[in-house]
Design goal:
CATH superfamily: Winged helix-like DNA-binding domain superfamily/Winged helix DNA-binding domain
Number of domains: 1
Order of helices and strands: HHHHEEHHH
Largest sheet: 2 strands, antiparallel
InterPro entries: HTH_MarR-typ, MarR/SlyA-like, WH-like_DNA-bd_sf, WH_DNA-bd_sf
Number of strands: 2
Organism: Sphaerisporangium flaviroseum
Protein name: MarR family transcriptional regulator
Strand content: 5-15%
Amino acid sequence: MPDRPDLAAMMSPLTRALIDAELPVLREHGLSMWEYSVLLALGERPLRTQAALAESIGADKTRIIGVLDRLQREGLIERTPDPGDRRARLLSVTPEGRRVRDAAQAAIQRNEERLLARLSEQDRDAFLRALRALAALPRDEITGP
């Protein structure tokens, strides 16, 4: 028998609890989890297509259209024609979108500090470094051939 549980067995309950902790914060900022995911994925530079955005956050490209419509109506994102390909749209965060995203993220991370405070500084740094490294892996490297 292995000396540790499977990674998914350890991560899944933690991920569900972290999402449950984020939901009230997101509601306070007028965002759904998908809307927040879009704002995070767009970062500071435009993405060329809705399909690329959907893939980057693990959403179905047809399902994300309503999320983008709402974010645009609220003035949080812009969809502008790509000068290099008029059929494509560039997706970008507006200044208001950045403000809302940054405020929500700051509140979420304040809550996360309670959890991270349970670790020694050395363990915390190692945990965050390892998590960043694993999160940066391409999906097919995790799922295998």
